[in-house]
Design goal:
The protein has a single domain, classed as Rossmann fold, CATH 3.40.50. The longest helix is centred in the middle third of the chain and has 17 residues. α2 crosses α4, α3 crosses α4 and α4 packs parallel to α5. The protein is built from 8 helices and 7 strands. The strands form 2 sheets. It has a 5-stranded parallel β-sheet with strand order 3-4-2-5-6, sandwiched between helices. Strands 1-7 form a two-stranded antiparallel ribbon. By secondary structure, it is of the alpha/beta class. It binds adenosine-5'-triphosphate (ATP), (3R,4S,5R)-3,4,5-trihydroxycyclohex-1-ENE-1-carboxylic acid and magnesium ion. The site of magnesium ion (MG) has 5 residues, from α1.
Length: 181
């Protein structure tokens, strides 16, 4: 598409917001590297996220997540999909704002629930009332996600490609991030 990416685009938001799916499409459109902090942690540990939580605990996962995010931000600009809890950490927010731009994929609770309900891969939702847990996380985390530089609202009618285009639209206001749009 001829645009030049000058800073890493970090996608943030709750489980199911589309960070991995939209991030992959966005990186393809921009012809830049795609990285996913969850996937990096899983590959390095050779364990699933659920296994890491069960064996080593959430605090261990969060420490790894911060290390991985710092390392990925240190490389050439690209698209970085963060884990759903990453943007709650002030350390991670500072690292992202120093080297990149944060974009919140803001999906409402019904949409999130429809996307995550059939998968058992999210350890935080292994509770007696996973929808209630997701609702609580949504309320608790919204103020943190709202600290992102840009917001792109999700909608059930928007495809993954549509969402990637909406991120590009939002970046039109940021020539310091994307030049030549
Ligand atoms: N715009 C969309 N239209 C249709 N399906 C979508 C859309 N965005 C995401 N999905 C689907 O919803 C599911 C969750 O998306 P994804 O895994 O990208 O979320 P995530 O934000 O990375 O979540 P997590 O924090 O758990 O990694 C996937 O099956 C994905 O293909
Ligand atoms: O919302 C969260 O806290 C999480 C989301 C996933 O991306 C994973 O990072 C992990 O399951 C924790
Ligand atoms: Mg993901």
């Amino acid at each position: 598409m001829g645009a030049r990416l000058k800073k890493t685009i970090a996608l943030v938001g709750l489980m199911g917001a589309g960070k991995t799916a939209v991030g992959t499409a966005l990186a393809r459109k921009l012809d830049v590297p795609f990285r996913d902090s969850d996937a990096e942690i899983v590959a390095a540990a050779n364990m699933s996220i659920a296994e890491i939580f069960a064996r080593d605990g959430e605090a261990f996962f969060r420490a790894r997540e911060s290390q991985v995010i710092a390392r990925l931000l240190d490389g050439p600009p690209g698209v970085l999909s963060t884990g759903g809890g990453a943007f709650l950490s002030e350390v991670n927010r500072a690292a992202i704002s120093a080297r990149g731009v944060s974009v919140w994929l803001d999906a409402d609770l019904d949409l999130l629930w429809n996307r995550v309900r059939h998968k058992a891969t999210r350890p935080l939702l292994q509770t007696a009332d996973p929808r209630g847990t997701l609702a609580r996380l949504y309320d608790e985390r919204k103020p943190f996600y709202a600290l992102a530089d840009l917001v792109v609202k999700a909608d059930p009618r928007y495809s993954i490609e549509d969402m990637a285009d909406k991120v590009l639209d939002a970046l039109r206001t940021r020539p310091d991030v994307l030049e030549g749009m």
